[in-house]
Amino acid sequence: MERIVTVVPEDGLHARPASKFVETANEYDADVQLGRADTDDLAPAASMLAVTGLGVSAGEDVRLVAEGDDAEAVLDALEDILSTPEAEH
Amino acid sequence: MAERTLSGIGVTPLSGVGKVVWYRPDADLSDPPAPEDVDAENELARFDEARSVAEDELQAERARTAERVGEEEAAVFDAHVQFLNDPQITDGVTDAIEGGLPAEHAVQETFTGFVEQFESMGGRMGERADDLRDIRDRLVRVLSDGERVDLSSLPKGSVVVAERLTPSDTAQLDPKRVAGFVTVTGGRTSHAAIFARSLALPAIVGVGDELESIEDGTEVVVDGDAGDLIVNPDDDTKAAATAEADVHVRTGPAETADGVGIEVAANVGTLADLEPAVDRGADGIGLFRSEFLFLDRETPPDEDEQFDAYVDALESFEHGRVVVRTLDIGGDKPVPYLDLPEEENPFLGERGIRRSLGPDASLFETQIRALLRAAGSTDGTRLSVMLPLVTTLDELHEARERFESVASDLAEEGLAHEVPEFGIMIETPAAAFMADRFAPHVDFFSIGTNDLAQYVMAAERGNERVSELGDYRQPAVLHAIDATVAAADGHDCWVGMCGEMAGDPDLTELLVGLGLDELSMSAVTVPHVKAAVTETNTGDAEALAANVLAADTKDEVTNILTSDQ
Q: What is the CATH number of the domain that holds B116?
């Protein structure tokens, strides 16, 4: 199961959004990978190192691929994180 | 020894005098033993144990940072925990141990590889490299039973000097003991700089390698405004810095040179901001952002929890006024227990008072109960309540009715309460245009310049491409402020301002000239604005305001303000 999502948080996949993303990916019973939408390379979503190492900025499209019992649920949750702007203070 | 100056980036407008204490987290390891002398199974167990100790430390520091600095800054520790448990890192360390390295050397080698990889990528990756270094040094310390340099109990008057300070290091610094800090690396937006501003600590970052030549115990002045580290300062320099530090804090109300009182208050975004606000001489709280009580949690705070927070704020300022803004939450701030709609344009959507009168009505009622009870529990006349994002009189009247109905409920229940001072934020063109109609129905206006500039200029705050337009020096914004003050004239309605503009001491004279009664800002600039108030003459200030209002462009405004100084 896969999905293309545009990254909204200003920081891209860094700092708090990345942290939340990885935490969420680890909460579900599914194997999730992600990469830039325009390449075939995929990295494990459960790894902070891999996720921040992609260096994805706001406005870029990423591809999420999930397999397992919770595949759809985890994709929903991750899409939610990627498409929610960071809290303003 | 002769006085000399090193330059870096000043991150707070504060000065401190003290003696250098070098902070070098000890990560030096002796050579590893021969691989055949290493018991891999034992080392793997030590690594697991060290990870669990490190995680406990991180959770404790997270909690401390959330309390002292804020939830947003504390979130950096979540990233650390995830790096700590990252499968790639754990696999790397495990491989290195199985290859014959003791655990601490395996950690050092594996992390350093990733640190270098991130550093070579440039940009934001530098911050991740710092995160990884922080975790590496923590794990190595735990594994080698290293003593932790306790930054929280340094001798009074220490100036901490370091290559870099990690968030966990900075969170330990106690502004009461530490006179400031200076780092080799870092920029204005680094974690250390953000912490320094929250804690009101004199600080300079990015001084460069030259800093390494300064020895422990050397006397220095940290000028966090100019970004200068003055080494071996002579008596005059020290006296000037100390005098500046003294000038910085004035307790008691500030008056202009010709005797007009201007209230200078602090904006408070978490309970941890209360102490610095008092320490920096704020007269009260001009903006208590009640959102922090609601964000980053799974359920809303109940009435008693809110009551305690409002009473804490009142008790921190025995004589001052505390202006609480009711919940200002909208589509742009995720709150798990609220059903916030997805909106095309969250800043123009269901936010602020619109939610409080609509979907969040029961949350609003609880907040009103807590506010009225807090007002009644202390000297109630000091609590003020203001509503965010008001655009119509209907909203004002409806909110007022809710306050009255809650007051009568509380009376029936026999609970002590008082109806507080009641005001609105002026942060939309609608509110500014209708200010003369609002004025008879409120006790005060508070002009929120960040949002007002955004809405008047139709230029989003966070968008760098239009930041020139969203500037509060734009004539249209200044006219909106002027119209608001004029509308309040003749009514029993004072006018305050909260937002960045109020905290800019270069604009204090203009704001006094425009007729503001109160200015509220982040604690760190309170003394500067108070000093600027005392140097202002209202006649001159009014002339300046008239000149500025006659300007056609932002550049003209800026020129008038600069030539005035």
A: 1.10.274.10
How far lies B392's CA from each of A26, B434, B450, B486, in Å?
46, 8, 20, 19
User: CA-CA distance, B554 to B561, in Å (whole number)?
Assistant: 11
**Which residue bears the tokens 């530490």?**
B178
Please report whether residue B254 resides in a domain. Answer: no
Q: At what angle do helices B554-564 and B475-488 cross, to 10 degrees?
A: 70
Paired tokens of B76: 């950096």
Q: Checking DSSP bridges between strand B203-205 and strand B219-223, what pairing results, if any? A: unpaired
Residue ranges for the known binding site of B are 289, 325, 427, 450-451, 461
DSSP single-letter state for residue B224? T
User: What's the pLDDT tens digit per position in B181-191?
Assistant: 999 987 766 66
The beta-carbon neighbor of B114 closest among A44, A49, A87 is: A49
List the catalytic residue out of B80, B105, B498, B528: B498
Average confidence (pLDDT) over B196-211: 86
Instruction: State the residue range of the domain holding A72.
Output: 1-81
Q: Is B498 a catalytic residue?
A: yes
Give residue A89's pLDDT band: very low, low, confident or very high (50, 70, 90).
Answer: very low
Angstrom distance (rounded) from CA B398 to CA B402: 6
List residues of chain B with CB under 8 Å from any CB of chain A: 70, 72, 75-76, 78-79, 82-83, 86-89, 114, 117-118, 121, 123-125, 127-128, 269, 295, 332-334, 346, 462
What's the pLDDT tens digit per position in B112-138? 989 988 888 877 777 788 889 889 988
Q: What is the mean pLDDT of chain B?
A: 88
| Single pTM value for the model | 0.60
What pLDDT sits at residue B103? 93
Looking at every residue in chain A, the average pLDDT score rounds to 87
Whether B128 and A44 lie within 8 Å, measured CB to CB? no
Residue A87 domain-assigned (yes or no): no
